[in-house]
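Protocol step 4 of 5: obtain the predicted structure for the target chain.
Materials: sequence only (see below). No template structures provided, no constraints applied. The aim of this step is simply to have a reference model before the mutagenesis design in step 5. Sequence pasted as it appears in the construct record:
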Amino acid sequence: MKKVISILCIPLIILPLFCACKSGEDVTTAAGTEPVTAGTTDEVTGASDPGPVSINIGGYPLDLFGIALPPDPSETLRSAAEDMADLIERETGIKLPVTGCGDRRGHSIILGQTEADTDAVVSARAEVKYDGYALLEQDGDLYITGTSDKGTSNGVYDFLYNYLGVRFYSGVFTYFRKNDIKDVPKGQRTVFEPAFPYRNMFDIEIINGWNRYQARLQCSGTLLSGAGGPHNLGWRSLTGGPYDTQPCLSDPAVFEATLNSVCADIETWWPQYEAIGVSQNDNNTHCRCEKCAAKDEAAGSGMGSLLMFINDIADAVKERYPDKDVKILTLAYNYSTWVPDPEVVKPRDNVIVQVCTMDSTCFTHAFNDPDCEINRVMYENLVGWSKVCKNLYIWDYNYNHSNYVSSVGPDLNVLWDNMKFFRDCGVVGMFQEGAHLDTGEFCEMRAYLMSRLMWDPDITKEDFNRLWDEYMHDYYGEAGPYLREYMDLTQETAKRKGLTAWDGHTSVYTDQKVFYAPEINGEKDYTVVEKCAQLWDKALSVVCDDEIHSHIEKSALHFEMILSKFAQSAAEKRSASKYFLRLCDKYTYHYDGVIPDRGPTEGFSREIPSVGLELREAGDGTAYVTDIGTFRAGMLVIPTKYEGMPVTTVGRNAISCCSCVVEAVVPEGITKINSYAFRGCNNLETVSLPASLQYLGFAALGYAGVDGYKCGSLTTVNYAGTAEQWKQLYNAENGCQNTLAGITVHCADGDVIN
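Step 4 output (C-alpha cells):
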C-alpha cells in the first residue's frame, strides 16, 4: 500500500488574517460552547509562528494585556497560565507576561480567585458548579474564574477554543483555526456548568498525562480504585485478585475487611480522591449461597446482594466520617448490570453506580434508537437506573474487544446520540473506555470528539458533525475525504443484514471480518476490504507536510492489521503484515526486531549525508525525512537536499526505535525536528543540533526515564545556538515535562543542564 521515496546518494564507504467579529451588545451565555464558523484554516504547529492574527478584549488589543495569577498559585493554575501564554504567542506572535495579580500593569487576563475580583466577578463565580467557570469582561480586564483551580483551567481552555480557534487534536498536534478567531465583546459574561462533573476516558495520551493533554481536553475527576484496578472487591476483602471468584457478600468477615480497606484509603487519600471504588471482580461467578441468592431473587437482579453490601459500606463510612463527603462507587457490570427492584434496594445518596454498557448492547445503533431491538433492553435498564440512582455514572465502550490492536468499532455515527441520551438520563459521570493500544482505529480522533461531547453534550448534531468535519480537514489535510469515505463505508457495512448472529447489529465483540470481508451465501465477499485498500492508497499518496503525513500513516496502522488478515491474496496479506510491523516500530512499540544494535561509526564522516533514509516532498518546495528506510549505520547525518529541494524537517517518529544509531548530526538548514523523531533510540549517545533549528517537538530526542520513549544512552547534546536560544527552543514543547532531564547541552556560549 505505502508509496515511499528513498533518497539516492552516491554510495561511499560511509554509508502554526486578522478576523475580528462584529462588536455587539453585551452577551450573557448560561452554558454551552459558542459555535464556531467552518472555513479556511491555517496550520500552525511547532515553534512560534507569528501570524497576522489577533483579537480585541473589550475593545482593547490583545498586546496590551498580561496574564495575572493569585499569590502562590497551584500547579494546575500556573500550568494553565503558562500554556495560555505559550499558545497565544505561537498563534499571534504576542508574548503576554505572566505575573502575580499585585504586579499586573495595564489590562489583564485575571485567572482564579484574586484580590482584583469585583462584585460582578464574585457574583458570577457563585453561580458556577462543579469544575465549570465564569468568564467576564469588565472595564478592560478579562476574568476567568471557577470555584476550583480546575474550573479556572477549564475556562482558560474554553477561552482558547472559543475565541482563538485553538484545537487540541492530539497530545502532540495543536491546530489554530484562524478564521474562528473572534473578539471578546465588552461586557461579555459567560457562566458554564458541565453536564458531567466527572469526565474521563481510557486513552493512551491522556493516561500518560503528557503535554497537559488531560487538562487541555478538560477531562476531570479522580477515583481511587486501589490495587486490582476497578475490579477490586477480591483485593479489598482479602479473598483474591481481580479475576478470582466473587467473595460472599453475606459474610461478615468480607464486610469488615472491605470496610477496613476503604477507611484506610480515606485516611490516606481524602479529599484528593472524590470517590472510593468498591467493585466486583471481573467475572460472572458471583456467590450463590442461600443468603446471597435470596437477596438477588428478591431484587430481581444480581445487583441485589451487591448493592445491599455497598449500601452497608456507605452507611458505615458516613457514620465513621460524618464531616467528610465521601462517596462509594461500584460498577453495574456483567451479572450486576441490571437495575434491581427499587422496592427492595436502591442506592444510598452517597453511593455512585457506574453502569457498564457492555452487555446486550448494539454498537451500530444509538441506545435510544426505537428500531433497534437489541438496545431496547439496555435503554430500559439505563432509564430504570436513572429513576433510582442520584449519582449515576456510565462506563461506555468505544473500541472493539475482538481485537485490541486494530480495535475497529462501528459506533462513530452514534457517538452524539448516545452522549445526548446519557445526558437526558441525568448521568453525572462519564468514562469512555477507548483503545487499549495506540494502534487503535482513529484513536486520536475518537479521544478529541468524545472529549468535546463529554464537556458539552448539549451541542447540536449539526455542531458535532462540523467538529468531525473540521477534524478530518485539519488533521488529515487533503487525505481527509478519502478517510471519511472509509469511515462511512465501514459504518454502513456493519448495518448490513445477514452478516452477524444479531443480523444488522454488532456487539463489542463482533469479529472485524464483518466490516471488511463478510461471508455471503457461504463465500467471503472482498468488495469492502478492496475498496478500503484503494482509499488508504489514495490517502497515503497525498503530497503533504510531515505532520499530516504522520497522522495518515499512524492511522493506517489499524487497517494494515485488517489487511494482513482479510486481504484476498496471500501476497497482499504478507505485504500488509510487514508494513504493519514496520509502522509499529515507528509509531508504537519495537516489534519486528529487524534493526541491529549499534551500527558502525568508523569510516563515516559527520559531513556526508547518510544513505537509505526515506524522504518525501512537503508540497511547498521543501522536503522532510520521514523514515529510516534501509539505513543501518551507527553514524546518522541528516541530508540537506532531496531532488533539488532543501530538507528542512526531521519528521515525527522518523528515526524512532532506530537502535543502530550511536551518533546523530542534524546540519544547518534543518528548522524542525518533530515530536518523537528520535524516540526509543536506546543506543544514541550524542546529538548535534544546528542554530537554524526553530522547533523541537515533544520528546523529539526521547523522553528520559520513560520506557519505550527514552534514548537510554543519550548523555550529550551539542547545540550551535546560545544557551538562551536553547532554553526557548526546549521549553516551548519539552520544558513542562523536562523530557531531557539530566542531559547536558553544550551550547555555543556555555552549558545547560535540563
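Step 4 remarks: Residues 1-50 have pLDDT under 50 and may be disordered. Residues 546-566 form the longest helix (21 residues).
Proceed to step 5.
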